[in-house]
Design brief:
This protein has 155 residues and is of the alpha+beta class. It has a domain at 49-54 and 61-147. The protein contains 2 helices and 5 strands. The chain has helices at 16-36, 67-77, and strands at residues 49-50, 89-100, 104-106, 110-125, 134-147. The radius of gyration is 29 Å and the shape is elongated. The protein starts with 15 loop residues before the first helix and ends in an 8-residue tail after the last strand.
Length: 155
């Protein structure tokens, strides 16, 4: 008679207190890592400071948003996991608003005026031969500062 012995697997035994301690340490570690991880949407852009606005002169905004800037803004606006269209794309930009705020004192800059320019960007794209074309509309804001008073030469 042939006997076969089965290999019996045993689950490791842990105390409840040990499991709770390990889970607490792991959750605190992951929470701290997520809190300290830099956000991809954190704005690190520097606001340009231009010369003073001349009396009676026309204030012109910075150039309208480029195609790359519009596509980056669209990608940020879409839900996570969705992809922005990249083929057969047409971008139409129209200026919605262009205005200058009253004089205000800004830290590390001094007195200045903030110039706002808002653009409505329509992104038209084709989905394929048998589907209707699509459109996204996003708003891109350009802000910059104008110094007030005399320009001081930089040393």
């Amino acid at each position: 008679m042939i006997t076969t012995s089965r290999l019996r697997l045993r689950w490791p035994r842990f105390r409840t207190r040990t499991l709770l301690a390990v889970m607490t340490v792991l959750s605190i570690g992951f929470g701290a890592a997520l809190y300290l991880w830099p956000s991809p949407r954190a704005s690190t852009a520097v606001v340009p400071v231009l010369g003073p606005i001349t009396d009676g002169g026309k204030t012109t905004a910075l150039p309208p948003p480029s195609d790359a800037e519009v596509m980056r803004a669209l990608q940020r606006a879409l839900p996570r996991g969705a992809k922005a269209p990249t083929m057969n794309v047409r971008i139409v930009r129209e200026k919605v608003a262009d205005y200058v705020d009253p004089v205000r004192v800004y830290p590390m800059i001094g007195p200045g005026q903030q110039h706002h320019a808002h653009y409505r960007c329509s992104i038209y794209f084709s989905r394929g031969a048998y589907r209707p074309d699509g459109r996204y509309i996003i708003t891109v804001d350009h802000n910059h500062l104008h110094m007030v008073g005399e320009e001081t030469p930089s040393l």
